[in-house]
Amino acid sequence: MSKPFVSLELRREPSQLMLFAAPVIALVLTLVAGLVLFELIGKPPFRAMYLIFVEPLTTYRGLAELLLKSTPLILIGIGLSFGFRAGIWNIGAEGQFIVGALCGGAVALAFHPGGGWWLLPLMMLAGAAGGMAWASIPALLRTRFRTNEILVSLMLVYVADLLLRWAVTGPLKDPQSFNFPESKLFQKAAQMPLLLPQSRAHIGFLVALLVAAVAFVLMSRHMAGYQLRVLGEAPRAARFAGFSEKRIVWLSFLTSGGLAGLAGLFEAAGPVGQLVPALPSGYGFAAIIVAFLGRLRPFGIVLAGLLLGLTAIGGESAQVSLSLPSATTAVFQGMLLFFVLAADVLVNYRVKFARGGPGARSATGS
Amino acid sequence: MDLAFAIVAGLIVAATPLVFAALGELVVEKSGVLNLGVEGMMIIGAIAGFAAKLAFDSYVLGFAAAMMAGAAMAGLFGVLVLFFLSNQVATGLALTLFGLGVSALVGQGYSGKTAGAFPRLDGVGLPGLDVICLIAIGLAFGVAWWLGKTRSGLILRAVGENHDAAHAIGYPVRLVRFLALLFGGAMAGAGGAYLSLVQTPFWAEKMTAGRGWIALALVVFAAWMPLRVLAGALLFGGITILQLHSQAFGLKIDAQLLSMLPYLATIAVLVAISREGAGRRRVQPQSLGKPFYAAT
Question: Does domain B2-283 fall into CATH 1.10.3470?
Answer without folding.
Answer: yes
